[in-house]
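Chapter summary example.
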Amino acid sequence: MSEDLLFYTHPKTRGRIVRWMLEEVGHPYKTQVLDFATSMKSGDYLAINPMGKVPAIRHGDTVVTECAAICAYLADAFPQAGLAPAAQDRGAYYRWLFFGAGPLDQAFIVHGLKIEVPEERKGMLGYGDLERVNRTLDHALSGKDFIAGPSFTAADVYMGALIDWSLHFKALEERPAFLAYRERVKARPAFQRAATLDDEAAAALE
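The structure predicted for these 206 residues follows.
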């Protein structure tokens, strides 16, 4: 039943990543859209996520927050979807999930805020500088269909969404490997279903 998997979100947030992951998983779920100023800061929701932010999921008695963690959890909770490699093959899978949650997301935010980091301070950043991020991702994606191995995984959901947004906001360069990867993952039926659901939810809030 959908009631055993509850998705807390807002269609104009990183919840879109988790919606995509849920559509890839294919298990029924119930969606609760929260408002930034009210329900997201309510006592009931703060008991779910004291940060007062979305997304989050409740699966039975288990609560998970943070996009990368949710994607990894869902891949393990629903192995029939085939979205996680075998345990012995997860090196690249974990690497790119955590690279997305750390260096890439940090680079995207610093770029979006137009923060100029002095050269002597770049060593304090988890990503160093954008040139290193571009070079690292180009090496990871050139000549490959997916980022963590021969098959599409939860790492592609998370990294695919972040790369798409980073290209849109020009935090990443429009390198051929990035553009081809973005088009490949966005062509997936689950991505398109998720985008339609979130676009409809966003329109209903206007």
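To summarize the output: The chain has a mean pLDDT of 96.
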